[in-house]
Amino acid sequence: MAEVQTFHPVTGSEIVNTAKNMLKEGYRLIQICCTKTPTEMDIIYTFEKLNLQCENFKLPVNVGDTLPSISGVFFAAFLYENEIHDLYGVNFTGMAVDFKGTLYETAVKQAFSMTGAENKE
Amino acid sequence: MGERTIIPFGPQHPVLPEPLHLDLILEDEKVVGAVPSIGFVHRGLEKLVEKRDFHEMMYVIERVCGICSFIHGQGYVQTIEGIFGLEIPDRAKFLRTIWAELSRVHSHLLWLGLMADAYGFESLFMHCWRVREKVLDIFEETTGGRVIFSVCKVGGVWKDIDNETLKRIVEVLNVVEQESKALTDVFIKDFTVQKRTRGVGVLSYQDAIDVGAVGPTLRGSGVAMDLRKLGYAAYGELNFEPIVEKDGDCYARTIVRVRELYQSIDLIRQCVSKIPDGEIEVKVKGNPKGEYVSRLEQPRGQVVYYGRANGTKYLERFRVRTPTFANIPALLKMLPGADLADVPLLALTIDPCISCTER
Fold it and tell me: What is the CATH number of the domain that holds B154?
């Protein structure tokens, strides 16, 4: 049976402290995912405990926004953040490794920042 | 301190069937750091959700990878079923589990072959792949495909396997098990293999957790974490425990895969003995609306899917976080301290799949 999932709201100014709290509680980062629809754009942070318990956080964002990196708390975050920068045009400060837009050298810059509806236009 | 040099490793390298690049920072012959580069063949498959309806998208997601194709399809339909809140019939759950575990058997045999090739054991490589062919034959017989199966659907599976065929699958797997024993003994006992793998590329228990390592890379460092214990598909009704090795080196990661190969055969036997009769699908009405995070255990490790739907036939987003993507930071932790000559073998022990990573 599908598990009931909650996406806790979080803001850009809270995300580093949230990550620190999750670390303190024994969670680790398993993914960061950006999603853009015609009406909204969010970043989903997913954390997981060794007992497989999972928590999701949702951070509303816009193209061109700058967020603090959580790679100082969870080293692995740098790959996800570089990916989101290259595909969605969201900037991160303080990444453990900053590829400066060269992780994905796509033909169309920030290719995922346009939704299907905008593409058709 | 020796003089520091930077040596490019990849993206084209004999040990890598797909492009991954590492800038290796060396002091004499010792690696002291590494910077990875991916993105050479990024395909943007996730973006296709905006143009393929949610039923058709299953066939796109299967093509994220040619080795884990079934489990990608399974993860996709599980995510959509999670959004619908759909419960599929028990027989479909067992069939999915059987195909998923067959995928693990063939993936681990494929990896063992590649590992043998990296040592220079050409005959061992060929024997591993010869045994693997028997598993591909089972896929062909039960699904019609050897690489892409297209048997998963939202609400269940497209094809059933009759009970006679299930018994025959177990007989074939008995032969696979017997023939694999002679091969895996080389990986476990051979002096030269141990010389190349023991104490090489050590990832500590805490580092494995901190950097988000997954799958055999994580369990090879002593962390008993296996997403199958969530009980998705039919795993909740099977008796098994995560395979764990404690040393965290290339040898430990190899042994985890060797033991998982036999564990998967055992899980298939359990499935065949417990599979109930009944329907293999439920009807799906309407379009999905909502969001869901789904987690599964692929042969290479944990895979995470995120789906968001708005009530139309097109999803707004489908995200795949593949095991290799999660294991790249772990690779960066393993490399410092290794000899330059060990890097190809070491990189291979995370079982990198760039096709998955460049979805």
Answer: 1.10.645.10
Domain that includes residue B336, residue range: 4-357
Residues B172, B177: Cα–Cα separation, whole Å: 9
The shortest C-alpha distance from A112 to chain B (Å) reads 7
Share of chain A above pLDDT 70, in %: 93
Q: Which of B47, B209, B302 sits opposite A112 (nearest CB)?
A: B47
| A56–B contact, CB cutoff 8 A | yes
Give the range of the structural domain holding residue A56, as residue numbers without chain letter. 7-112
Residues A72-84 have a mean pLDDT of: 92
Contacts of B354 in chain A (CB under 8 A): none
Non-local CB neighbours of B152 within 8 Å, separated by 6+ positions:
B58, B62, B70, B73, B74, B76, B77, B96, B158
Query: Cβ contact (<8 Å) for B329 and A105?
Result: no
Q: What is the pTM of this model?
A: 0.92
Nearest to B210 among A30, A75, A86 (CB): A75
Digit-coded pLDDT (tens) for B72-97: 999 999 999 999 999 999 999 999 99
Assigned token pair, B143: 């699904």
